[in-house]
Amino acid sequence: MKTAIERIRRFALGRRAIASVMALALLGTFGVYEIWKPANANAAAMAPAAPPLPEETVNTLLAVDKAMETLAAHVTPAVVNVTVAARAKTQTGNMNDMPEFFKHFFGDQMPQMERPQVEHGLGSGIVISPDGYIVTNNHVVKNATDIRVTLNDRRVLSAKLVGADPLTDLAVIKVSASNLASLPWGDSTALHPGQTVLAFGNPFGFRFTVTRGIVSGLNRSNPYSDDRRKPGEFIQTDAAINPGNSGGPLINVRGEVIGINTFLISESGAFSGMGFAIPTQVAKPTVDELIRNGKVEHAYMGVGITDVTPENAKFFHLNDNTGAVITQVEPDTPGAKAGLKTGDVVTEINGQKVSDAGHLQVLISGQHPGTKVNLKLIRDGKEMSTPVTLEELNKTKTAAAAGEEHGKARWGLGLNNLTPDIREQLQAPQDLHGAIIMNVEPGSPADNAGITRGMVIEEVNRHPVQSAADVQKELGNVPKGQDAMLLVWSNAGSSFAVMHAGESTPAEEGGNF
Fold first, then answer.
1. How far is CA 157 from the centre of its chain?
2. For residue 447, what are the contacts with CB-CB under 8 A and spacing of at least 6?
3. Cut 0.70: pTM above it
4. Distances (CA, A) of 480 to 81, 345, 415, 483
5. 361 forms bridges with which residues in the sheet?
6. What are phi and psi of 136, to 5 degrees?
7. Which secondary structure element, helix H or strand E, spans residue 438, and what is its range?
8. Please, what's the b/e burial string for 213-236 (b: 16 or more CB within 10 A of its CB; e: otherwise)?
């Protein structure tokens, strides 16, 4: 019995021992599992990332970034924020705009009231001298009654207008200060497409913004349809320019001002990759004149001009595509007095080559009235020189056109004679002769050449015309498959347009022109 009891006790102790061992084993297993599981999870989360690129690989990029940072830090103190309050058209108020107690007092006899209107604008500017002369755009300060300038150090100073020039869209203002950070002028004629440039300004009110890009193009023509006498030669850049950047500087890598940011081309009204700046070859002499005299007297010849192109060069017996073609000579102007003629090609002025119409426009506009310049011309394939004494620029009238259609043809033109009534409606010069364009077929050679209703055809292939019948005859004489060049007058002056024969449409009844 005792032996049996002893066996049972030993068995129980063994079971407890086994249970204890199993418990310890399980405890050890769970311990290992709990410790091992997060250890592996953390190891996965904290795996080392790929190492950075070695210094020798990125040193060039780092050097460029450092140079841009240094350049931006150098330029920014000389860039200012320009805010203006400007006069606007007055508005007429009525009783519906007034508080109720005024309506009750006046009843139905509420008087009409003229309300002076004030518009607030924002732009940018460039300090060009330590004593406070600042360059901006004319459209920024136009009609301003109050001009305020915010400096980079957040000082706000009152500014006065020194002078403005609507033709170049430049203005100079001045603040009473000294020892201001300023920027030097650079040479815009030394620029090349692809060069790095930085644009500075205050787009949409975000003060002291800098954007980086390249020179996308040079010598871009004047896009202003309101006045074709405004000089072009604009710098095109993809450095972002937005509303508020107007008047800010376009800077080269030396920290020099090579352009004044002035407008952008965009369907949305915001930057879409095409910003434009006034080159210093236009800006600097204009600014110097504004500081000296408060205004700019532009010289002019009294002629309309357009570019020589690959399309029209052959009609002027030219071997290349450079120069400016005279499309119109106004009566009693320097050009008329010098004997210039429509179709003359200006190739040089005072020994300097003329690349295109915009270049000639800048060269003439930069002269002072009374200056005598010597033009080298090609007239009907023959080279000649002509001196022209320039006069001060005068304004010309513009007009619109209307009338009845007279025939259509393969060139896509509907014409009518330039009658006295139509001439009066156009406010056209008395010495203007030709046929008025009453209709242009969409997709026709005329339409593709940029010809529009209301233009007056003065010449066909260098032959003057007096009537719609003359135009029909001359165009009818153009051999099949050959282009035709028209000299057309519009409210912006005269210009040449080439109609391509390959784009012609089938002839219709009423004439073959």
1. 29
2. 412, 440, 441
3. no
4. 61, 28, 21, 9
5. none
6. -150, -170
7. strand 435-440
8. bebbebbbbbeeeeebbbbbbbbb
**Per DSSP, what are the bridge partners of residue 147?**
84, 159
Tens digits of residue pLDDT in 340-369: 998 999 999 999 999 888 889 888 888 888
Rounded to the nearest 10°, the torsion over CA 317, 322, 327, 331 is: -110
Token match 């787009």: residue?
Answer: 203
102 with 80: CB under 8 angstroms?
no
pLDDT digits (tens, 9 = 90+) for 260-289: 999 888 877 778 888 999 999 999 999 999
The residues assigned a catalytic role are: 139, 169, 246
Count of Cβ atoms closer than 10 Å to residue 179 Cβ? 8
Q: Name the nearest CA neighbour of 96 among 81, 77, 113.
A: 113
Separation between Cα atoms, residue 405 and residue 438, nearest integer Å: 5
**In this structure, what token pair is assigned to residue 462?**
């260098």
Query: Is the distance from CB of 177 to CB of 170 less than 8 angstroms?
Result: no
| Residue from 429, 417, 424 nearest 304 by CA | 429
Q: Alpha carbon 233 to chain centroid distance? A: 11
Residue 278's CB is within 10 A of a number of other CB atoms, namely 27
Strand partners, 373: 388
Give the helix/strand (H/E) hosting 101: helix 100-106
313 Cβ partners below 8 Å, 6+ apart?
A: 319, 320, 321
